[in-house]
Design a protein that fits this description.
2 copies of one chain form a homodimer. In chain A, 68% of the residues lie in helices and 3% in strands. Chain A has 256 residues and is mainly alpha-helical. Chain A has 2 domains: 66 residues, Winged helix-like DNA-binding domain superfamily/Winged helix DNA-binding domain (Arc Repressor Mutant, subunit A, Orthogonal Bundle), CATH 1.10.10.10; 166 residues, Up-down Bundle (Four Helix Bundle (Hemerythrin (Met), subunit A)), CATH 1.20.120.530. In chain A, a hairpin with a 5-residue loop joins strand 1 and strand 2. In chain A, helix 5 runs antiparallel to helix 11. The radius of gyration of chain A is 24 Å and the shape is elongated. Chains A and B meet through helix 3, helix 4, helix 5 and helix 8 of A and helix 1, helix 3, helix 4, helix 5 and helix 8 of B. Chain A binds a DNA duplex (30 and 30 nucleotides) through helix 3.
Chain lengths: 256, 256
DNA sequence: GTTTATATATTTGTCAAACCTATTATTGTT
DNA sequence: AACAATAATAGGTTTGACAAATATATAAAC
């Protein structure tokens, strides 16, 4: 093998600094809530300028690893990663992937059917009364008159999230948020007519009842048919939308 | 309601600019592969300085929304979000959550057992011959002598990933990568003794066979017992580790 | 004429030294 | 003791410049 010319530094300085600090955070050399040296000091230690340090810090902040406060007691602090923040980041990313067409809607629906029916089983085993109450609230809301489509969709999402939460499993919940949320843009296309809303709320209630009765398999089966019903409605909606989109595109003029 | 004093600008300039550009990307006003105006031009348009613009751009780059190239044809470009990149980001975040103790190892194992046995069923239905071949390769590798612990673990991860890929479901694969990978730090603690390695490889093979035979339920059951076996090994390892950790912590000495 | 070297323009990357602003601790006054 | 002015600290922003990378055009060599 030829001489290994001591790994050329091809990445930028700010990138390197960000990587160094990130590594320090990830392997615990920088503890949660610990304060980094101030920016000037960091610049001096790394032998680079403050703007470059700041670019690195901004990157870390964007990755939810640090946050900064001003003032005497301020500085850049390592923050404790919370599932909520991570869930939001995952959701955003997943939504983007869906939006750009990386996944087909059929794939998404299938993933959702399978994972949510799984959640039903776990929820039946582990649900608390508070979980049931949360689901019940949303069902009641879904039966109110005069709800906008957005409100109905939002309540639908909250119901499914409550169901996932009822599994009592953190990692699963993290994953499921992404699946459920990234499904929203598609779900929002549906026009929920009156009787479809009622059917949806009824499905939700049957699922909730089964979970309340600790009958996981029944709940899972109900969820399957619920989402399958949704899929058929979705298919027709997608066709309508595709037709509309192709018509829209021909007026055209994409930029570059 | 009191007067809504036209939302005070409390967030920093770079934050605002990042939000504006991100919004433009997410709702399609900036298309994939489109080039943003150069940094000087952006600074002029937003009425701020270039370093501030750069901080905003760095944030977007950290979120995998843009990438930058130097030179005449260079600039900052909107990039197509790829599942791979998103999966890596999710994995990193999930790993961090695990590392900081947001999730218990029992939760993680349960999530993994349930989701992977689900994947077995789907894989049995959808697997291609190429998928089987990939799994077979890893099993063969796992039976080789002289493998380091790291190599064995890596092969284990690749086997499970191949299994997930065999489901043919993109969103599911995205989720599962996070579960499997974030499990690594825990898995790596195990010392795979010779006969445990053999048992693992045997389990893998039985699972693969069931999937090859399109027998999803059998594959799922095998996966369950495989991971349950892992769990019992893990429990004893965790106890050993907890004891070691409490001993280690008392010697202290972090940097600053 | 084709290839190779060189110059040049463009754009991101980095630097330096300031100044601005939010936040807190201190100090002094009432 | 309570409160207001003040100073100190550290992040936020600006300005203007130079360095490095890279594509393109141009000139030289074969």
């Amino acid at each position: 093998m030829a001489l290994q010319y001591d790994e050329i530094v091809r990445s930028g300085l700010s990138r390197q600094v960000a990587d160094l600090i990130r590594a320090a955070i990830l392997d615990g050399r920088l503890a949660v809530d610990e304060r980094l040296p101030n920016e000037e000091e960091l610049a001096r230690r790394f032998g680079i300028s403050r703007p470059t340090v700041r670019e690195a810090l901004k990157v870390l902040a964007a990755q939810n690893l640090i946050r900064s406060r001003r003032g005497p007691t301020g500085g850049n602090f390592v923050i404790r990663p919370e599932p909520e923040g991570v869930a939001r980041a995952i959701t955003d990313a997943a939504t983007l992937l869906v939006g750009v067409g990386s996944f087909g809607s059929d794939e998404i629906v299938l993933a959702r059917v399978e994972t949510e029916s799984l959640c039903c089983k776990l929820a039946a085993a582990n649900r608390s009364d508070a979980d049931l109450a949360r689901m019940g609230e949303e069902i009641a809301l879904q039966r109110q008159d005069g709800l906008t489509d957005e409100d109905f969709c939002a309540s639908d999402v909250r119901f499914h999230r409550a169901l996932v939460t009822a599994t009592g499993n953190g990692p699963l919940r993290l994953m499921m948020y992404a699946v459920i949320e990234s499904f929203i843009p598609i779900t929002n296309m549906l026009i929920y007519r009156e009787h479809e809303r009622r059917r949806t709320a009824d499905s939700h209630e049957r699922i909730m009842m089964a979970i309340a009765d600790r009958e996981g398999d029944r709940a899972a089966a109900l969820m399957r048919s619920h989402l399958d019903g949704l899929r058929s409605v979705l298919d027709t909606a997608l066709e309508r939308r595709a037709a509309a989109a192709s018509a829209r595109h021909s007026e055209g003029g994409d930029d570059r």
